Each structure stands twice: as C-alpha cells, then as structure tokens.
Amino acid sequence: MSSLRSDAVDCLHGVDGFGSCLPGPYRPLSAVRAGPDTTNPNPTGYAGGERLLRFSHTHVSGTGGAGRYGNIGVVPCAKRPRLNPVAFEIRREEARPGHYLAELSPGDITAELATSRHGALHRYRFAGDPGFFGLETPHIVIDPCAAIAGQCVEARIAWSDDRVCEGHGVLRGGWGHDEPYTVYFSAALRSQPLRRWAQNGVQINPDRADGPGCFAVAAFPAGATVELEVGISYVSVAQARAHRERELAGRAFDALVEEGAGEWEALLETFDIETSDPALRSLYYTMLYRLFAMPDDLGMDECPWFPNRGRQFNNLYCLWDSVRNANGFLALWRPQLQADLVNALLEIGDHTGWSPDAWVMGRSAQVQGGSSGDVLFLEAALKKLPGVDARRALARMLKERATPSPDPFYFGRYPDYFTLGHLPADIPQCVSRTIEYAFQDDCLARLADRLEEPAVAAEARARSARLWELWRDDLKVFAPRAREDGAWAGPADPWEPARRDFWADPWYYEGTAHDWALTVLHDIPGLIARHGGPEAFARHLDTVLARGFFLWKEIILHVPWLYHWVGQPERSAEHVRACLKAHFRPGRAGLSDNEDMGSQSSFAIGAIAGIYPVTGTDVYLVIPPLVDVVNWQVGMENRRLIIRRDKSVRGILWNGQPLGRAWLRHAELVEGGELLVGSNLNDNCSMPPPVLRGMFNSHQP
Asked: How does pLDDT run across 49-61, given as a tens digit for each residue?
C-alpha cells in the first residue's frame, strides 16, 4: 500500500448515481474544476456510461438540482467538426488528484487534463488514421458558449496570433438563479496549427467571431499530440491571460500533474490516520478530497461583483448544507479559512443588503432554509475565530430581521413568521422553514447574550420559542397550520413526504415530518421532554433508525449522534457506524445522496475519526474512532490533536486524565492534546454535563 495519502483518493468515487461528484481534476478550493461533460448529465455535467460532448473548466461537484456551468468548452476531433455537436464514446478513464485521462472514440483520441488554481492544461494524443484522402486530421474546437444547463446570451472569440485565442461567454441558467454571468478565457496552443479560424454558423472568419454559437477551430497534422493552456477569469481577458501565463506557461504537463498531486498531499498529511484497513483509508482521504472541492476561493482579485475589501468566494452551494458539520470542522482545522468565509458573508451583506443562504456567481441563490450564515456568525464568536467582529455580525442579523425581504425565495424571510410566529400552510415548505428560522433566532439570542444585549436576546428567544406552537403531541412532529383558523393542515403520514418530488413538498423540504422533528438543535432537551424523557426519546431514535432514513439527507446527518443527549454515547457509536456502512460504499455509485459541499464527507470523516461538531455550538461529540490513530493539525498554531482507540481504557482519557464526558469544547481541542477513547462510554461518560444538557436552555455565553 502506498504511503502517499493522495494515492488513497478515489477520484471516481461518487461520480455516478446520487453522488454527483466531479471526476475531473481540481486544486483545493480552486476556481477552476475541469472535467468531461456528457449527454444526460448529473449536475456536474457528467454521468458514467453517457457519451462525451466536450471538456470544460467550470463545474460544481457533488450538488443536487439542475446542472450549472460547464463553461469554455474544448472538443478534440479526429476530423473537421460539423456544425452539430459531436459525441464520443469514453472507452476508458482514469483519475487521480491532479490528473484525468479518457480514451475516446471515434478517432482513437487520448485526452488528459491537469489543473492549476485558475486554469487547465489539456493534452490530446491523436492516433487515428487520416483517412483515404488524408483529410481526417486532428482539430481542436474552443467553445465560449458551452453550458451544461442554460444558454449563451452573448460571446466573442478571437485569435490574436496563430497560437493564442481569447474571448468570453455570457451565460445564464442552472441551479440557484437565472441571472447572466461572464466567463473570460485565454487559451494558448503549444504547437503551430496547420490552420485556424473562427466561426458562427456557416460564417467563417480567420480571426474572430461573436454572438451565441461562435467557436474557434485549429487543425493539426495527422498523429499529432496537442497541448492547450487555458486560463479562466471572472474579471477580464487580461486577468485570464495573467493566470495562464503565471500558472501554466512553460510548465510541462507531467510536472503540473505532480504539482497538483503534491498540493493535495500537503493538505491531506495534516489529517493523518493509521489503519490496516485500505478501504477505510481510501474512504477517509477521498471524503477529505471532496470536502475541499467547494467553494471557489477567489482571493482578493477575482470578485467582479463589488469592490471587495477581503477574501471572497464563489459557489457557496450551499451554506444550508455545510453549516451542519463541514464548517464546524473547518473552524477546528483551518480557523483562518473559516473566519474569512464568515467575513465574506458579512461583506456580501454589506453590498447586497442580505447575507446569503447560497451565493452563486455574484447573486444570492435559492434559500433552502433561512439565513444559514446566522449559525456561522454565532459559531465564530463561540470559537473566537480571528478577525471576526461579533458586533458587526449581530448588527447584520438585526438589520435583516428589521428589513422586509422583497423576495424571500432568494434572501431574507417570509414576513408571516414575524406576525404569526410561524409560517402558515400556504407558504412553500412552511414547517421546515419555521424550524430553521427558530434555530437561527436562537443563534441571535445567544450571540446577543454574549455581547450583553439582554433585550435583544429576550426578544429573539421568545420568537424562537414559538416554534413549539407547531408541535403535534399526538404525532410527535411539527405540523403545518392553516392561515385562516390555525387548524392542523397535515401531515397525512409523518413517515413519508407528501410528494414524490420531495424537494417540492408543501411542508417539509427534502425530508419527512419525523426527519425535521429531530432537527430542533436549539432545544434538544425540550424535544426529549416532549417525547416523555430520555428513555422514551432513545426508543424513538431506535424506531427512526430501524425504519431507515428517507434517503440520506443533510438535515438528518446528526441523528445517529443524538444518543449523546440521553447519556448513551455507545449507542451513538453503534448507529453512526451502521449508517457509514449503509450509505458510504466503494465505487462510482458509492454515495446514497449528493455530497453537498462537504456535508456527506464530514459525516464520514467524523464517523471514522470518532469526533463530530454540533452545529451552532462550540461542542464536538466523541465516540471511539474506526482507525487506530487520528493525527490532525488544529487551530491557528497548527497544534496536533491525537485520537487513539484503546479498548483497555474505560471511558475517555484527555491528556492522560479521565474526561468523564463524551464531548469536548473547541477551546480545548485547539490547544492540541491526546484523546484516548476506550470502552464503557455509557458507564463512564453516560450523563451529558450541564454545558451539553442545558446548553440550549441556559444560554450562557
């Protein structure tokens, strides 16, 4: 077995089925994620077993919904391309961090991709016969109008010399919003073409073309190997050119591949594990690779939407997913990155008036639950992330609550929540949105407590508590009420969604009533009480887990860990492991649901490492790890957190001393240390201490 962690990554894991992960190469949080686009694609633009249309440079990875991007396409053709699209059979493909390879037919073409942070290097080997008349020579098509789901509304492409082609495409469509966005490119061939031209329809010009449908073509001798550098920017052609020249020009293809693999190795070695199980090792490092796919780190110079003062990001796609666990891990592993993400949300709020639930190409995208950034604003204060102004965050939260949203589908809240205390049954996903709003109001209350603003805290806490007006004690779920008289409107069956297209369920977004009833993370003790106490609540968890989840959605990833709240961490460990086994398998269809910006990956990583963040808090739950040793780099000072599995230990030892609990706080973990996790957790760490048992009721800062 290779000692390199990057060699354990399976880049084709989760690319098919529900996973929708990207097979092509990318760097950690890079702006360019290159890859193949196929007919009948998943949201990434790719589906195994389908025919290839092109390679392109902008993709999401692991998302649901309609596809997006697939921009600045490149098509290798064994002969002069026709006006209608060419589709290839993918005979074989390989992928590893930093490199993707596909063998294509017709034409006997080997295509390879390697990436930098803002660009990609293509290599195409044409081994096919030039035909009876010798006219079937290789061609490369550059398409600024390419898109997975959507359309080109304007484009331009021009040859500045025989080898350099530049331009842009203005595209629209895809998940989140339909507003146009612009992608600029600079492409340079590394060998002299026999001829080149630009085209739109039947109109051919040797130097330039514009309008939807334009493209450029370069022809090469038979049997050629063609390398193409492509730099991408959202700001300008000049910046795309600068990215290309700085990151790709003069770089040997194989050297760029190794540089990409080396960047991943440097990141993965900060999350080291020791295990004799190669399958578990592969899953662990693969999930880390997926977690660091998105969002795009735009730095200081790739934000075209407003004059940014700090580091900005694209494709926060979506916070609704990542706040459930991934951001908690990032705060532990990369606190500066998490702080920069939080500050980026605040800056977006300053410029647009609203902090986003999802942020895609300079626009707030579809709100799935509420103002998810509120959770991160509180966590930043609890975890003392560097450079985050808690008062600025509180002011942002208050301003958004005081300002009526002109379009709650994209930002802010439906106003009925403030007048009725909940959303009525005629508002889409009324119950799940109310639960999310109530959780976020509790985050506001706790942040106000911390900043000694008691009146603000009391008002937000009172508003949050009204959630319980939707509680149906006979069903043990939250249920919708009619607007007119407050009568119960459902659900017909709390174990099933009301619609087959569950994302359009009228009351519960992407889940059942029972799923959503277990997401009241601001008052788990209140939920336990309404179930009749700890034993009754544990029996309910048994029932939920025995039935199997309605798919494996982000909203319920924490559910197997809820036994901690009733003093049974061993039961948490049992069910976490069972869920890992059931929903994370080897292979191309190895995920039961979309990866969703690190949320599925974070569940797997937490299950394997034996530690898991509680969203909206500074608490991390602990169970025995599935590997022998976990060795993480944590905190601003890059200290080492060691987690060991040792069955000879009763309970948990923290730095050699009995811990007496199955959880730690962020401030403890970032100091580094050794966590020895043994057996008998229920006996030695059975009762949640006050900070966990009452953390949502006491509201102590």
From this structure: 999 999 999 999 9
Q: Provide the token pair at 671.
A: 């100091």
Give this prediction's pTM: 0.96
Return the CATH number at 210. Answer: 2.70.98.10
- Same structural domain for residues 611 and 684? yes
Three-state SS annotation for 596-650: CCCHHHHHHHHHHHCEEECCCCCEEEECCCCCCEEEEEECCCCEEEEEEEEEEEE
Percent of the chain with pLDDT over 70: 96
Distance, CA of 35 to CA of 28 (rounded, Å)? 15
Radius of gyration for the chain, computed over Cα atoms and rounded to the nearest angstrom: 26
Is there a single domain that holds both residue 321 and residue 294?
Answer: no
User: Is omega for the bond preceding 494 within 30 degrees of 0, making it cis?
Assistant: no
- Whether residues 469 and 616 share a domain: the answer is no
Q: What is the pLDDT of residue 688?
A: 67
340 and 373 share one domain: yes
User: Is residue 137 scored above 60 in pLDDT?
Assistant: yes
Position 427: which residue type? I
| CB-based contact 13:585 (threshold 8 Å) | no
For 555-583, how does the pLDDT look when each residue is reduced to its tens digit (9 = 90+)?
A: 999 999 999 999 999 999 999 999 999 99
- Tens of pLDDT along 461-515? 999 999 999 999 999 999 999 999 999 998 989 999 888 888 889 999 999 999 9
Give the whole-angstrom CA distance, residue 669 versus residue 675: 10
CA distance 553 to 321: 9
Structure token pair of residue 579: 């869920």
Domain assignment present for 574: yes
Segments forming the whole domain that contains residue 469: 425-443+451-520
Domain tally, the chain: 4
Q: d(Cα 34, Cα 100) in Å, to the nearest integer?
A: 9
Report how far apart, in Å, the C-alpha atoms of 282 and of each of 42, 458, 483, 584 are. Answer: 24, 48, 51, 12
- Residue positions counted in the chain: 701
Lowest mean pLDDT among 80-89, 446-455, 522-531, 644-653: 80-89
Residue bearing tokens 């029996």? 539
Separation CA 203–CA 257 (nearest Å): 38
Q: What pLDDT was estimated at residue 130?
A: 75
Q: How far apart are CA 372 and CA 580, in angstroms?
A: 26
| H or E, element range at 430 | helix 430-450
What CA–CA distances, in Å, run from 659 to 8, 622, 656?
34, 11, 9
